[in-house]
Structure formats: structure tokens, C-alpha cells
Specification:
single chain; 344 residues; alpha+beta; 3 domains; five-stranded antiparallel beta sheet; 14 strands; 27% helix; globular
């Protein structure tokens, strides 16, 4: 029997013009699962279907990655929540180290960049791309054992809210709430007013009480999207909905891609789009709701400083650009990356 996970999609053609796609929501047992119709005449309908029927009558849609939600044991008295992201292409190559790790009980390495006087925050989402050069990425996977796991298929184009809606969070929320309350209680003897303030606020120095809070507060979605080469923006859908980029979106992407876009073609991403068949420059971009678009574009031949190579000279060029280019700074202000965690 082929192994597949919740959120895996299956499809079949009813006729030349009609396709039915199902998303696996839940396994009742080894023989039966619950699915939601995501394409076809009955979109939104939930049905119970034998696993064998899925495998015999439908074709499994290859996922782009998997996301694993874990409650892990750190020691005899401490549990943690850990979320990891793997690219399917890497797994096929035998690369079993995740591309992204998000955890509660780790020091926030990025806090000092935003709040130099508050370096004791916890909670972190980090990727191979954002991990500091002097830190071993694999260290963020350390634990004694795994207590609970939920494994999901991930497809480009799915928002974090869509992913989180597929499964129940009770085990993860209970673990996070225990960690949060334990942190609050640590102030009772020395600063009871602070303990009470944190309890009422519902978040304390990075400690949160629910899985969605952990992921959103630490910009997990940013790391998820960048792992699959998606540029996450804060721009509303209207900037991508007319088949071309709006002037604002065009300027933003020109700055981020360090080139001058003068013509574009925009389509909403779908798994049936063969990206390798696109014979123009293109990129994947998301709007503020997480919808992903394929943006094919032409450039007028005027390029900015080439910083594709990670040598020391080009890194210095990038730092200079980031420090002096107001348009580039403005562009990065429209990247979907929240600093709410560090706001007092």
C-alpha cells in the first residue's frame, strides 16, 4: 500500500472537461478516510471514502513537500513543540535534514536585531537560508524523543491558515500553554505584577499558548514560502488580479529582483502549471492573503549591481545597497515579515 498523509490530494478525470480533486482530511482507520472535494462539481463537499478506492480510481498528486508537527521531549520535565518543513525534491535525493524548523523552547537569535535591549526572547523559526553561518542548523532539531506527530503533505499555493485547518491542535496547544504558564509562574515570587501582566496579555517574551500563535509570531510562513522560492508580500490581491502586475507590484519586484521589469504576465499558481516549460524569466509571488501567483516578466536590459554570487565583495555591495537605497528599503517593507513579537 502506498503511504500518504493528510492533506494529500488525489484527482481523476470524469470526462475531457471535468476533473475531480479530493484532499485527505482525516484517516478514520487504515481502510477509510475523510476527504474534501477541492475541484469539480461538488467543491466543498466532505465525503468518506475507502483508501483502496482512492488508490485504485484516483491518481495521487505529488506534493511539493511535507510539514511535520511534533511534540518532543527535551528531558524528563520539559516538552517542546517543533515544526519542520522538508522539500520533496530533497527527500528524493536522500536529504533528510529539514529546510525549516520552528520551536518554542529555543532562544530567538533574531531578537537582538529588532530589540537590542531584549535578547532573552524565546521561540524561533529558522531556515537553512536564514541560519547564521556560525550556528549549526541541525542543533535546532535536538530532542530526546518525539511524543506526538502529525504529518501533512504541502502544496505550493496553500496558505498557513489552510494548512492549520486540516488537523486539531489540542496536543500542541496544551504543551505550549504549560510552557507559557510555567514561565509566568517564574515571576510570582520576585515580580507578581509582571506574572499577572503576562497572564492577561497571553504572551510572554515569546512564550505563546497556541500553535497558530507560535507559527505566526515567529514568521514561519515567511520561511515556508522562501523555502519554495516564493516572494511573500503584503500587497492585496488587486495588485495581481488583472493578468499583469500593478505599477506598485512591478516596482516592488524590480527592486527585490534587482532588475527593471517593464512587462509582465500574472496567473494564479496551480499545480498543473509546468514551471519548467516557461521560457521567460519568472518568479512566484504571494499576496497578503497567501495566494500564490506565477509572474512571468520582461526586462529592459538595465540591471542593477549583480549580487548573485555570495563572495565578500558582493555581500558588501548588498549591504551598501540596503543602507542607501530608499526604494529598496521601501520594497522590503512590503515583504510579509511581522515584527509584532518585539513590540511592547
Amino acid at each position: 500500500m502506498n503511504k500518504f498523509f493528510i492533506n494529500t490530494r488525489f484527482y481523476k478525470y470524469v470526462d475531457d472537461d471535468t476533473i475531480i480533486e479530493l484532499k485527505v482530511l482525516k484517516f478514520h482507520n487504515k481502510e477509510k478516510c475523510k476527504c474534501r472535494v477541492t475541484k469539480g462539481p461538488d467543491v466543498g463537499m466532505e465525503i468518506n471514502i475507502p483508501v483502496k478506492t482512492l488508490q485504485d480510481e484516483y491518481t495521487m498528486l505529488s506534493n511539493d513537500g511535507i510539514i511535520i508537527f511534533n511534540v518532543v521531549k527535551i528531558n524528563d520535565t520539559l516538552d517542546d513543540v517543533m515544526v519542520t518543513v522538508f522539500r520533496s525534491d530533497d527527500l528524493v535525493k536522500g536529504i533528510n535534514i529539514p529546510n525549516v524548523v520552528c520551536r518554542q523552547c529555543v532562544l530567538d537569535l533574531f531578537a537582538k536585531q529588532f530589540t537590542p535591549n531584549h535578547v532573552d526572547y524565546v521561540g524561533l523559526s529558522i531556515s537553512k537560508e536564514t541560519c547564521p553561518a556560525d550556528v549549526e542548523f541541525e542543533n535546532f532539531l535536538a530532542c530526546e524523543s518525539v511524543k506526538t506527530s502529525v504529518v501533512l503533505s504541502y502544496y505550493i499555493g496553500e496558505s498557513l491558515d489552510e494548512i492549520l485547518s486540516v488537523f486539531k491542535h489540542d496536543d500542541f496547544n496544551n504543551t505550549l500553554r504549560c510552557l507559557f504558564l510555567s514561565h509566568c509562574d517564574s515571576f510570582i515570587k520576585t515580580n507578581p505584577a509582571m506574572a499577572d501582566y503576562f497572564r492577561r496579555k497571553g504572551e510572554a517574551n515569546g512564550y505563546v499558548q497556541t500553535l497558530p500563535e507560535l507559527l505566526k509570531l515567529n514568521n514561519f510562513e515567511y520561511d515556508l514560502y522562501r523555502t519554495f522560492d516564493i516572494i511573500p508580500t503584503t500587497l492585496p490581491a488587486e495588485h495581481f488580479s488583472d493578468g499583469v502586475l500593478s505599477k506598485t507590484a512591478e516596482e516592488l519586484l524590480s527592486e527585490i529582483l534587482r532588475t527593471k521589469i517593464y512587462k509582465s504576465l500574472v496567473v494564479k499558481y496551480d499545480k498543473d502549471i509546468d514551471l519548467e516549460a516557461i521560457n521567460k524569466k519568472y518568479c512566484l509571488v504571494s499576496d497578503n492573503d497567501g495566494t500564490v501567483y506565477v509572474v512571468a516578466y520582461f526586462v529592459n536590459g538595465t540591471y542593477y549591481t549583480d549580487i548573485d554570487d555570495d563572495n565578500e565583495q558582493n555581500i558588501e555591495k548588498l549591504v551598501t545597497l540596503m543602507g542607501t537605497s530608499k526604494s529598496l528599503q521601501h520594497a522590503y517593507e512590503n515583504i510579509k515579515f511581522s515584527k509584532k513579537k518585539y513590540e511592547k
